[in-house]
């Protein structure tokens, strides 16, 4: 499909079938991802993981979901009841809606009707995904605020700042894709990757997007809105039963959403991988592309799980500084480079390989400059406290009249404790 002429002609019952299938796929994919995460992390930590309920423990997620839904539903006395109930719904619904423009495959015959394996498409489909996904932030913020708890409020504020910050880097990473594809339509972007995937052509954009999508979904090592050691449970501390399950569902569907978007924009969408597409001419026809699409999505989900089982949580100020001082400037530099390459390629007159080498060297220099830590000058350094012992001792309170105890360390600051 090279244009949007294939959309908007389906009968109402085909549209209904597509919408129901997307809903069922997302719910089943969530149950599978929860089971898969527990099994993979258990394998990494030399544990067994769920293996009792159903074959290989596959029904464990369903059992946990039913148990969670049947638990007692508690609403705190200080909570704003209407907003408290609305918040998890506001977080879950956008997670489902974003999949309406994701292409799962080419045109197929469905119950005698010729239709694309995509609910709908539009000229600004990628912007639609980002706009709808950003509505989910309101659910998290309102959930934290309406609980009447300080810890929940802090978790909601952390989450809003984090998601907004990393949405900026994510949006800038996608600009290079728009420049190369010449469109913001998801189906046209997939069609533009028929020969070469953008993940190989636009490597910096791909890496920036992968970092930003982890921060956007509040997953480890960027799960600062929860930060159990500091905030008990984050924005959903006061939630229980089905409302907590909706927050849980929204998180895992958002994982699938950013993974599906990465597949669509950088890994050729539903197109078969290179060796298969060359050996098997019919690999991109019929319903076979569904296999390639979900295989790529599960690859990104595995990266989420791998990171959770490998890396410790970052400190919040380090995490925010990395987004604003590293990812966003590098994204802006890369956009200028890509725009220059596209302009020169379309107009001609300059060797493209030489231009790529020059821009690559400049990008490496800027990357090194950004990664070098800032050094404090002698004037900015804090003066040493008279009589303060060297670090390494236990923190003890100072004596009322004599200052710190000899041989003990000075009291730790909040940043050092965390």
Automatic annotation (TrEMBL):
GO terms for biological process: aerobic respiration. Pfam families: NADHdh. One of its GO terms (molecular function) is oxidoreductase activity, acting on NAD(P)H, quinone or similar compound as acceptor. Residues 402-411 have a biased composition (Low complexity). The keyword Cell membrane applies. It catalyses: a quinone + NADH + 5 H(+)(in) = a quinol + NAD(+) + 4 H(+)(out). One of its GO terms (cellular component) is plasma membrane. It comes from the Bacteria. Residues 381-418 are annotated as: Disordered. The chain crosses the membrane at residues 12-36, 82-104, 124-145, 166-184, 196-215, 244-267, 287-307, 327-346, 352-372. Its EC number is 7.1.1.-. Belongs to the complex I subunit 1 family. This is NADH-quinone oxidoreductase subunit H.
């Amino acid at each position: 499909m090279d244009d949007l002429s294939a959309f908007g002609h389906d009968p109402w019952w085909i549209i209904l079938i597509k919408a129901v299938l997307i809903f069922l796929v997302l719910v089943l994919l969530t149950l599978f991802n929860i089971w898969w995460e527990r099994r993979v992390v258990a394998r990494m930590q030399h544990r067994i993981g769920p293996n009792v309920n159903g074959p290989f423990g596959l029904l464990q997620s369903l059992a946990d979901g039913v148990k969670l839904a049947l638990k007692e539903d508690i609403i705190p006395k200080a909570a704003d009841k209407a907003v408290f109930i609305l918040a998890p719904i506001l977080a879950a619904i956008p997670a489902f809606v974003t999949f309406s423009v994701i292409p799962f495959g080419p045109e197929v015959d469905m119950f005698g009707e010729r239709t694309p394996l995509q609910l709908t498409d539009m000229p600004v489909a990628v912007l639609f995904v980002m706009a709808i996904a950003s509505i989910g932030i309101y659910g998290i913020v309102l959930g934290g605020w309406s609980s009447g708890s300080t810890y929940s409020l802090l978790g909601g504020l952390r989450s809003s700042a984090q998601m907004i910050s990393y949405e900026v880097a994510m949006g800038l990473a996608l600009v290079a894709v728009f420049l190369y594809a010449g469109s913001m339509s998801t189906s046209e972007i997939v069609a533009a990757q028929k020969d070469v995937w953008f993940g190989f052509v636009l490597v910096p954009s791909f890496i920036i997007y992968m970092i930003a999508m982890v921060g956007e979904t509040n997953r480890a090592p960027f799960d600062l809105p929860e930060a159990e050691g500091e905030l008990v449970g984050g924005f959903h501390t006061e939630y229980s039963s089905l409302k907590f399950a909706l927050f849980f569902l929204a998180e895992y569907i958002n994982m699938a959403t950013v993974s599906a978007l990465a597949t669509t924009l950088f890994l050729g969408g539903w197109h078969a991988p290179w060796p298969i597409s060359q050996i098997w001419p019919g690999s991109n026809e019929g319903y076979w592309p569904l296999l390639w699409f979900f295989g790529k999505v599960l690859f990104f989900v595995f990266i989420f799980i791998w990171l959770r089982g490998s890396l410790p949580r970052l400190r919040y100020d380090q995490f925010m500084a990395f987004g604003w001082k590293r990812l966003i400037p590098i994204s802006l530099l890369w956009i200028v480079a890509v725009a220059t390459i596209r302009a020169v390629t379309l107009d001609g007159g300059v060797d493209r390989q030489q231009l790529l080498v020059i821009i690559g060297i400049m990008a490496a220099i800027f990357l090194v400059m950004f990664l070098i830590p800032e050094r404090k000058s002698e004037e900015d350094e804090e003066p040493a406290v008279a009589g303060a012992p060297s670090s390494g001792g236990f923190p003890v309170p100072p004596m009322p009249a004599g200052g710190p105890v000899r041989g003990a360390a000075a009291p730790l600051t909040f940043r050092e404790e965390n």
